[in-house]
Specification:
The chain has 264 residues and is α+β, with helices and mostly antiparallel strands. The chain has helices spanning 2-19, 232-260, and strands at 26-29, 45-49, 54-58, 68-73, 80-85, 90-99, 106-113, 116-124, 133-137, 142-147, 154-161, 166-173, 187-188, 202-206, 213-224.
């Protein structure tokens, strides 16, 4: 009986832990399931683009495996690509990128939400700089400006805060994963200070008139929101589940005890 009691106690403990830990779903894309020369595709986003000179899955330059996504245009006025998430309750998104300073001037990455475009990442190449650099800004504020190495993979990560309507973006070196941005502050996520964001709907890649683009992207990762059982409804649900576990295990203990009286 001592062993049975220990099993019951342990089972209840495990049940309590499971009720307070919600799994986080990760959606990833390294373009390996796409055919070179085709548009990228996956179940967790829909993809559209607007007539770049060259825009599709590439198998000549990549970070992992043997595919990446390339955008290439000598005069991309008004051109764009959209990765639209099929889910909206999201925690953060990250990707890797690489540019060639001899062929790339500028590209702008926008995080979008239902209310419109959010913050901007501008990736500069040979335009106006000896070294390539990246800036993070919204309509009124440039939060940070960091030099990057040419022909090197770098990581960008966006975190979403739906409580105060801000987005944080950080720049990481590919090899060390150190945070290279000088400012780790959250930035207002829209054109006006009173904008209300409740979701993240996708990534917009945008060209700028007279600024050539050649950039490679790889290893996308989009994380669903973590939800702990803190609301009243979730607490009640957790208590009900715990009571069910206790009752079931108690009945099991009674049955085992009853059968233990019989000797075979």
């Amino acid at each position: 009986m001592r062993k049975i009691k220990l099993i019951i106690v342990f089972s209840i403990f495990v049940a309590l832990l499971s009720m307070n830990v919600a799994a986080t779903t990760t959606n990833t894309e390294n373009f390996e399931n796409d055919t070179a020369g085709s548009d990228p595709a996956a179940s967790w986003y829909t993809y559209t683009d607007e007539a770049w000179d060259y825009v599709f899955v590439n198998e000549t330059d990549y970070r992992s495996s043997n595919h990446s996504y390339e955008v290439n245009d000598t005069d991309p006025a008004g051109l764009w690509s959209w990765f639209n998430w099929t889910g909206t309750d999201l925690t953060y998104f990250e990707l890797y990128f690489k540019i060639d300073n001899s062929t790339h001037d500028l590209v702008v990455l926008n995080m979008a939400h239902t209310a419109g475009l959010s913050t901007n990442i501008s990736i500069y190449g040979k335009t106006g700089a000896v070294e390539p650099y990246v800036t993070y800004s919204n309509a009124t504020t440039t939060l940070w400006n960091n030099t990057i190495s040419n022909n090197t993979w770098w990581k960008l990560r966006w975190d979403f805060n739906y409580t105060d309507d801000t987005v944080r973006c950080r720049l990481f070196d590919n090899s060390s994963h150190d945070n290279t941005s000088t400012n780790d502050t959250w930035l207002q996520a829209g054109l006006v200070t009173d904008i209300d964001i409740t979701d993240s709907t996708g990534l917009n890649i945008m060209g700028v008139d007279d600024y050539a683009v050649q950039i490679w992207f790889d290893d996308f990762a989009l994380y669903d929101a973590y939800t702990a059982p803190t609301s009243l409804d979730n607490i009640i649900t957790s208590i009900q589940a715990l009571v069910t576990v206790v009752v079931v295990l108690g009945l099991m203990g009674i049955v085992v005890k009853a059968f233990s009286k019989f000797k075979l």
